[in-house]
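Re-run requested by the PI after the first attempt was lost when the workstation crashed. Everything re-entered from the original request form. Ligand of interest: heme C.
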Amino acid sequence: MKHARLIALSVCTSFAAIGAADAAGGEAKDVKHHHWHFAGPLGTFDNDALQRGFQVYETVCSSCHGVELLSFRNLGQKGGPFHLDGCPAGIPDSVDCSNPNENPVVKAIAANYKFQVTDGPDEYGEMFQRAALPSDRIPSPYPNEQIARLANNNALPPDLSLITKARHHGPDYVYSLLAGYEDAPSTIEVSPGLNYNPYFHGDLSQNLKPEYLDEHGHAREGVDVPLGGLLAMAPPLSDGMIEYTDGSPQTVEQYAADVTEFLMWAAEPKMEARKSLGFVTLVYLFILAGLLYWSYRKIWSDAH
Ligand code: HEC
């Protein structure tokens, strides 16, 4: 009995704690729903979007965010943005371009990447920098968390390898955040180094200007606390900043959608294989169910 009461009490307090955490989190605007090529049970990645998305990541996001779970070779694996079935003209027959380590596009991306790889120690015991190879992990911008924070107003730019899985409404959220920066509402104060975004979770009741607060420090009657929050990332994208060679629009929305599709692939590179296996399994089960029903009818048809 005593135990039952204890359990009931701890369940109640946990719910209360969850409620409080929710309330402290503040409200953000509902995410924009983008029409994703990879959505739905049969959805696949759009390879052109993946290539453009990597371009956006490499040009812009990689200055602050790593994708530490990805190696360059992953970009050339089956289903990856730069996978090749055969070699482009001019490459000797002996090369197997479907092998990510020999894929010439992947090799060039690794060799020209904006960060080199730390290797070593050499014969003198020193670490050294060298150009990346397809087998290397994609290097992150900062050597450790402290330097990352120092460079970003004490905020930590998260690794983006799994970000589309780590956030509620994953891809729609990342897309909305990147394409959704707005001017801060006039009722709030934004400290230097922070930026307003209606899709970021925060509690802006603490940021209302003094004239909108009553004597207890709460919002005056009729004053709404704006949706959204303040984050240390300034709007990273702007129209026309990256040149696309395939004629796609060079807009913030397009860049945001492409980089999100790339990050979705990064988080689940085997999604296509998983979906097609699921589909084949369903077809198999459907046929099996039909056969079982037919044999059931056949076996029992004489038994009355
Ligand atoms: C100049 C550095 C910088 C650049 C460039 C940059 N970011 Fe960020 N980003 C940050 C920082 C710092 C944070 C942490 C913000 C905070 O918690 O206040 C962040 C946070 C994020 C978050 C997490 C938001 C959340 O819900 O916690 C995502 C997603 C993100 N960035 C994606 C991107 C993408 C995609 C790009 C490229 C288009 C990009 N960032 C470019 C610095 C940067």
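Saved to the shared folder this time. The beta strands are 117-119, 128-130, 195-197, 229-231.
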